Amino acid sequence: MGEIDESFIQSIEHRPKSISVEAEGIPVIDLSALNSQDLVVQVGDACKNWGFFQVINHWVPSSCREKVELASRAFFRQPSEEKRKVRRDEANPMGFYDTEHTKNVRDWKQVFDFTVENPTVVPASHEPDDPELQEIVNQWPGYPPNFREACEEYAREIEKLAYKLLELISLSLGLPAEKFNGFFKNQTSFMRLNSYPICPIPHLALGVGRHKDSGALTVLAQDDVGGLEVKRKSDEEWVQVWSNDKYESVEHRVTVNSERERFSIPFFFNPSHNVMVEPLKELTTKQNPARYKPYNWGKFHTTRNISNFKKLNVENIQIYHFRI
């Protein structure tokens, strides 16, 4: 049957169920819809009631996605010593990594991260009074030869899609389409290639433990293996501050299996490091006051990244820590 290191083992209450529940009614948004107002309503309903949705007819070329998927598989199937030539660390958090933790439990996965803007400017430390900034520069492997080209081409296409979705979300909140766009000048967005290897004891571990993404929007492409589990709001079976809780990030996790490895590619759409995140004035009233204190995105994100490199004795920073 095999064994796994104890650092991967989830506590009993957070282990995956042996039988998965198929969610029905997941919103599917057709971006080719001719009636843009209907599209806005659909996106708003999906954000409010689910926190996520699937998009079709999204204009991202299939050839572009296929190219990055093949490059990703080729990279991860190399020997560990080759992948570790571009291993990330606290000085440069972009590159390969295989010891990431979620909720202080090690994830059963390997990742490769790269920023959309190269270089990307971020705070030099998580200390609130430290004004120093640093530039993060992507590091690229020598194999496969087309790896960088495939990644950058795909990132450009997904960035276009992310802006389109952001505009639809803005309209669904009753705001101008480009209301959020200014927050993403000099963005800190990054893309991740995920590899979830075959796990000998999949009922004890998770590819990624339960969590909520902290950025504005995540665009995810996944293969046919499956494993993404989302906690539905209606029964809790397995963009938040700006909207003042009107739209809430959904908790999700990734299971693994003993038969097939799994690959996915999330794009984390994040604002500039100097953006102060707070409920928009247009969405607050005397009857519905702001529910969050303002916080600096760059410092928040840098603090969140601490747990990428070491196991913490306390819970890492979360958005709910800023609730009023």
TrEMBL record:
Boundaries of every Fe2OG dioxygenase domain copy: 187-271
Coiled-coil ranges per UniProt: none
Entry keyword NAD: no
Any one of the GO BP annotations: response to molecule of fungal origin
GO molecular function, one term: metal ion binding
Pfam families for this protein: 2OG-FeII_Oxy (PF03171), DIOX_N (PF14226)
Family under the similarity heading: Belongs to the iron/ascorbate-dependent oxidoreductase family.
PANTHER family per the UniProt record, alphabetical: 2OG-FE(II) OXYGENASE FAMILY, PUTATIVE (AFU_ORTHOLOGUE AFUA_2G00750)-RELATED, OXIDOREDUCTASE, 2OG-FE II OXYGENASE FAMILY PROTEIN
Protein name: 2-oxoglutarate (2OG) and Fe(II)-dependent oxygenase superfamily protein
Organism annotation: Abeliophyllum distichum
Taxonomic placement: Eukaryota, Viridiplantae, Streptophyta, Embryophyta, Tracheophyta
